[in-house]
Write a structure and sequence with these properties.
There is one protein chain. By secondary structure, this protein is an alpha+beta fold. It has a single domain (2-140), classed as Roll (Thiol Ester Dehydrase, Chain A). The protein has two helices and seven strands; from the N terminus they run E-H-E-E-H-E-E-E-E. A seven-stranded antiparallel sheet has the order 1-2-3-5-6-7-4. Strand 2 (22-26) and strand 3 (30-35) form a beta hairpin. The chain starts with a strand and ends in an 8-residue tail after the last strand.
Amino acid sequence: MIPRQDIFDLIPHQHAMCLWDEVVEWDASRIRLRAHNHRDPTHPLRSNGRLRAVHLCEYGAQAMAVHGGLRGRDSGEAVRPGMLVALRGVDLRVARIDDLPGVLEGEAEVLMEGGSSQQYAFRIHHAGVLLAEGRAAVVLADAPPMPR
């Protein structure tokens, strides 16, 4: 298991904007994570006291980013920052998530990748029930220079 503090080292999202609390398991093609923050009244994506299901797309995108960071760290190569450019086939099965007890569980899986882009599928569950799923495309920037 990889704790939240280690996730901070993998993605640009910090503090409350880092949505995942732990990585449960991962390999070269997929990742599973958990989050407990969806009920937090100070959640940065809340509006009018609610955290809407559309924000599960951000949970999915951050799952992809954590996976990319782990893959980069594992290979010893610099992680290439990515920019989310498209969401496809998104299916939201609830209207809001701030009223759900317990943890959110997410997974992301690489579907395709090329030299400068990746496509992932993501799924977010709560208590074994699918809340959201979709596909996301990311364009990768040049890798930052490796420290000397």
